[in-house]
Every structure is written in structure tokens, then in C-alpha cells.
């Protein structure tokens, strides 16, 4: 029984990784993602610091909504 549950867990992790990979592929095609107002960028001689505050808030909000819809019982 323990081997079956381990196999299921590995399959679930694989499906989650495929979904995350697909998400990153699709997000790479959205030109405004990561360049929203509120995303901070500092550029100096050979140094760039990027802090995507607004993008992180947007992703957090969307994931919260999705997870509440999926796991609501």
C-alpha cells in the first residue's frame, strides 16, 4: 500500500510541474507581465535590480482565487 501512495504522489507532483511549466511558457508570451506599474527597477553601471511588487501581488491574488475554487468543499 505504501508503494501505491508513493506512486500517486510522484504522478501528482509530475502533473503539477507540467502545469507550472506551461504557465511559465504562456507568461513569457505576455508582453506586459513583469512590467506593470509598481514593479521597481534600478539600473546602475553593470547592475540591475528588479523587484516585481505589483506582479507578485497579482499572481498571489490569482493563485488564491484558483486554489479556493479548486479546494473548496
UniProtKB/TrEMBL annotation:
Transmembrane parts of this sequence: 9-27, 47-71
Q: To which species is this protein native?
A: candidate division WOR-1 bacterium RIFCSPLOWO2_02_FULL_46_20
Assigned keywords, A-Z: Membrane, Transmembrane, Transmembrane helix
Name it: DUF2905 domain-containing protein
Q: Which Pfam families match?
A: DUF2905
Domain of life according to the entry: Bacteria
